[in-house]
Structure formats: C-alpha cells, structure tokens
Amino acid sequence: MKNDSHIQDLIEASIASGANAIGEDDAKTILNACGVPVVAETRAASPAAAGQAAASTGFPVVLKAVGPQILHKTEAGLVRVGLNSPAEVIAAATRMQAGAGSRIEAFLVQPQVQGRRELVAGMFRDPLFGPVIMFGLGGIFTEALNDTVFKIAPLEPADIAAMFQEIRSRKLLGAFRGEAAVDLDALRNILMGLSDLARQFPDIREIDINPLIVQPDGRPVAVDALIVTGKDRRESFSRSEVNRSTLRSCYYPQSLVFIGASGSISKWGHMIPTNVLNRNFKGRVYLVNPKGGQIAGQTAYRSVSDIDAEIDLAVITIPAAKVKEQIPLLRQKKVKAMLLISSGFRETGAAGRQLEDEVVEEARKAGILIFGPNTMGICNPHIDFFCCGVHVYPLPGSTSLVSQSGNMGTQLLAFAEQQDIGIRAFSGSGNEAMVTLEDYMEAFEADDLTRTVVLYVESVKDGARFFQSARRVSKKKPVVVLKGGRTSQGGMAAASHTGAMASDHRIFEAACRQAGIIQVRQPMDLLDLSAVFSALPLPKGNRVAILTLGGGWGVVTTDLCIEQGLAIPDLSEDIMARLDQILPDYWSRGNPVDIVGESDPTIPMTAIEALLKWDACDAVIHLGIHGRRILAAKMINSVGNTDPAYSPEQLDQLRSMIVEFEKRYIRHVVELTGKYQKPVLGVSLLSDEKSKTLYRIEGCQYNGVFFPSPERAVKALAGMCRYRQWLEAGA
C-alpha cells in the first residue's frame, strides 16, 4: 500500500489529539492510497477562500465544513449541495461558521458528482470477530432501509461476490434508468482495499464511505468518508494448544474412574456410572468414594491411589472446592484427561472463576486435559460408551454433536434416539475451561466417521478462531449451528453508519454464512439437517419436483420452497408425456405433480422415478404416500367392528399388505436415491410411535428420510442447497 508511513502518522496524530477521528480530506487520502476512487476537492480555510475554490472547480459544487469534532456533517447542517456561484458558497460557509463556530477547522469544496445510485462501504472492529467489512445501499436511507451485508476480514474474492448477491437491492448494480451497470471490478477493489487497511492498521477502528456514488458511466466514487481511530481493547485469547490425540482418545477410553461415585439415585455420581455400566462398554470401570464399600454392585475404592491399574479418563463429580486436591493423585496415576462434571466454577461468579483458573493451571502442569467443568458428559455410541447424565442411547452414526447447554444436549440426544438418527459422538462442552468449541470442531474435522458437525452455541469466546475453524471444516463436511441469544444487541457505541448497522446477532449470522455454516433457528432443525446430510446425496442445484397425494399440500410446499430460495421448475413436454402414461387423465399437469389420491401403489413409485430422470430436477419432495398405513389401520378397525362379511383373518391380511407396501415403498425410494444420486425427502401423511425420521435399508448407500411436516422437509433441503452453493462458490 502506498504511503504507509504517512497513514500511520495520521492515525497516531488523531489518537494523540484525543479526537480519535481523521478529517474527511485526510481520510480520502488514506482511502485513495488503498485503491478507493475519491472525488477531487479543495480545502479552504475561510468562506472567502471557499468561494475562490468554487470558481476554480466549476459549478455546481458541494460545500462541507470539516473538523476533528465533526463526525456527521449532514445531521449537523454542515453540508450544502447544488451551489451555483461564489456568492452562494461564501454565504453558505458564513452561515455554517456562525452555527458551528470553532468546531469548523476548514471547508471542503467539491464538484457535485452526478449519479442516481448511492452505495455505502465501510469497516469496523467487532469485539468478537475483529475487522468486519460492510457493503450495501447508501445515502441518507442507509440505516432506514437496512440493506447491508457484512463479511469478516480478510476478504477473499468469493466473499466479495457473495456481498454483491446478498444485498436486496442488487438489481441496482446492473444497468439502471439509462445509466451503465456498476463497475464491479472497481467495487471489488474498494472492498478489498478496506480489508487490507483493516489488516495493516489495527488502530483504525471504523471506516465509513457514505455515499459511494455510482456515476452514469458506472464508475463508483467516494464523496464522503470518515475514519475513526483508537487502540484495540478486545480481550486476547491465548490458550495453550489442546492435544488432539488425547482429546480423541477420550472417546475411546480403555479404563475410567468415577471420583465422587455415589449410591444415591438422584446424584450425578450415580447417574453417570450406572449409565456406563448399563451398556456393553468394554472398558474397565472403577468407582471412588471415601467411604468405600459397594456402589451399583461394584467395589468402591477410597482413593484413586488405591486402584492398581492404569486409568485413561477420570470422571469427577465431587464438589468444586475439592477438585484441585485430586489433581496430584491423578498425575501419579498418569491419567490423561478428566471429565469435570462438577459445577460451582466460572458460571457462579468471581470466586468460581478464580477457582476454575486455579484448577486449569494445576491440570495443565500435570499434563491433564479437562472437559468442562459444568458439563453433562460425553458419549460414543460406536463403542456403546454413554458417559453422560441422560440415559438415552442413539444409534451409532455420523453426526458429531456438541452442546453448550446440558438441557439442549439432553433433548437432542433423546430426539436422535427416538428418530433413529445416528450419533458419531456427543459432548456437553460446559464452561470450556480447556477444550473449546473450536477444539471439538478441529478434532471432528480429522475424524473419518464424522460426516456432519452439529453445534448448539450460546457464546463464542474466540471469534476469529471459531470463524477460521468453521470455514476450514465446512470445506470437508457440513457444520450446522443453532445460536442461543440471537436477539441480544451489540454494546458498541458506533461513530459511523457502518458500526451503527451492526449488532451481535447480525455479525454472528454473517460470519456463519461466510464460513459455510448452516445456521438454523429451532432445536429440531439441528437434527433434521444432520439427518439429511448423513442420509442423502447433496443436491446439484435448487430445482425441486414435488409429488403429492393431494393438491393443498403441494401448494403449501411450493410456497415454502420459494420462501426458502428453492425453485419449482415448470414440467417439460417430455416429462409430462412420461407422467401421462402413469397418471389418470385428470392429473394436474404441473409441478407440483398431484396424483389425486390414487390408491394404486405402483403410481407413486413410477412417478418418483420419472421425476428423478428429469434433467431439470435436482431433488424430489414427496408428500402423503408414506404414513397412509395409519389411516388404513383405522379404516380396517371400523370395518371389523361393523361388517361381518370380512373375517378377522382377511382384515389381518389386509393390514399386513399395507405395512408391507410401506416397507417396499421406502426401499424403492432409497434405491432410486442411489441410482440417480439426487436427494428424495418424504413427508408422512400421519405419524405414530413407529414412525422415524431415518429408515435404514440393508445394502443401500443412502437412507430413507421422512418428516412429519412440509416445513421441516423444505427447511432441511434448503440447508443442503445453501451448503452446496457455498462449496461451489469456492469460499
């Protein structure tokens, strides 16, 4: 970048003066040095000098008053446009001087730039993620219309392309009312220049270019600029490196000890050991209680020192104040890690924070890795290891789940068990004194059994590392996140439009989009997405064919698809001809394909395959075919109660036929999914205690996926499409 030393001098001078703002003309000098085109202007010390400058500039002109205490000139009445003579300029400057007095350091005289489109670009430093670049619709309506997007710096080309696509007013970037399309190369240079400034000069706190006027020939030019300076006071996170090998090995312990084992059924020291012992876990399990005796049919040792065996993992449930005294004993036993279930640490306040820091320091010296504290535990269904408080047992699968909330983790594991959604591994991350969300992500990144990483997040301590880890992991496998506390507002006192447009949840959401994270709004969405990512191929595009047993559901599903950014293409003549051979004459002849309640079981089977063969179809949603057995069973019961012409044997045979059809239908859908490599998502007509989200078919690469509502099916498919689009964008 040109004139680095001059830029640094301007920054340091603004900080030393206490103003923490760089004047507009100097700000434009800095921006111009990093590739931002700026309007030509003349600085004038007095109203008379401003009049002379205007005569040399040519009319009409814009007059501005500037000074270190003037941040928002328009709001203060210190900008005049459309001045057409030296006398008008002098009069306007005199009135400004009378109103603002000593706050005015000088006047700027600029030619009035013509252009109907006004954009905004800027940068600010987020307390969590660091420098953030903003772009969107500018001018006086920036905050009112709120059409802006954010990306974490440093920017990559794919990030800038995404910014152009994500603003709602993106049509303004094309040809507009006789004016040329915006020079996108120039816009890219501007945004990349802001990213470079943020990286090279950490004492620039905010940059605001508003408006960035697009001239009739499409060239953007900055006619106003603000740079705010200040020392970066963000909390630094310099944690010691977590041993990934040790972390992964804790999911495969060959021996573990429970310190704080209890015979009381309501205590964690009883709930967790009985959970482990209840399963077919092959590792050795030891219990420690200072009273000794028998607990859960096992010998209880008075101290971990009394155990004559090597121990991989210690599970701690004793009171927080007694944890530190166990560390020397664990060190003697060469224990690699502790699962610290105990609460009473950082979550309780200053005293608890100090105690947690002391425990972490002692454990670090002893070479012991801490999970938690205040965690509900971990599990690995692949070895039948359920070392957590909740006694639910999901099938082994490919979804790795981390929750910062114990209750949320309980709910998700229970739902996964109920719906046959397989879990690769689970961890309640607790206070994350040592092992953080980022450590889990990076461990699962290298895990061959993990296909999807699912996170429930309430707070991120190291935003930069979270963003970088998620962006890297997303390139290999989907990362799905539910963020609690989305509605909290950022506490930064912003001096610019750029900063004022930001809030905690907007920046977190922007970081998720940029990193390829699929962010969801409800807990069930987490496992719905984990189900489709683990069970189906990714769609190659966003074009959806809908097959429905009734018209209303098809209409609703179409609306949901459009709202989620999915396309419902019109049927081609070729596909209609194929369906004409399958469906009755009065079928809908459109997408959605309504099979009008036909009871012939072969119709939906052949119709789905016809849609999957269609080149304009990337995915199929089929509604109402699965789950009809429930209504049929009710009908058969009614027949049995009222019509003596049908014997119980005949009715039982009919029930069996309906159940068998549903099984054959599921297998057929799964086989077609593999044959055409396109995702097929079902919506059940009704569901009961036998209904599942996932149906595993032996010998098939994929699974059957069925949701109880169109909303859940569409949201899951839309998440898959967003992830595919992010991958293809090359982010």
Spell out the blueprint of helices and strands.
Blueprint: H1 4-17, E1 21-22, H2 24-33, E2 42-44, H3 47-57, E3 61-66, E4 79-83, H4 86-100, E5 106-111, E6 117-126, E7 130-137, H5 142-145, E8 148-152, H6 157-166, H7 184-200, E9 204-214, E10 220-222, E11 226-229, H8 244-249, E12 255-259, H9 268-278, E13 284-288, E14 294-295, E15 298-301, E16 313-316, H10 327-332, E17 337-340, H11 350-366, E18 369-371, E19 377-380, E20 385-388, E21 396-403, H12 406-418, E22 423-428, H13 437-445, E23 452-457, H14 463-474, E24 479-483, H15 497-500, H16 504-515, E25 518-520, H17 523-535, E26 544-548, H18 551-563, H19 573-580, E27 593-594, H20 602-613, E28 619-623, H21 628-642, H22 648-676, E29 680-683, E30 694-695, E31 704-707, H23 710-728
Parallel strand pairs: 12-13, 12-16, 13-15, 16-17, 17-18, 21-22, 21-23, 23-24, 24-25, 26-27, 26-28, 28-29, 29-31
Antiparallel strand pairs: 1-11, 2-5, 3-4, 3-5, 6-7, 6-9, 7-8, 9-10, 9-11, 14-15, 19-20, 19-22, 30-31
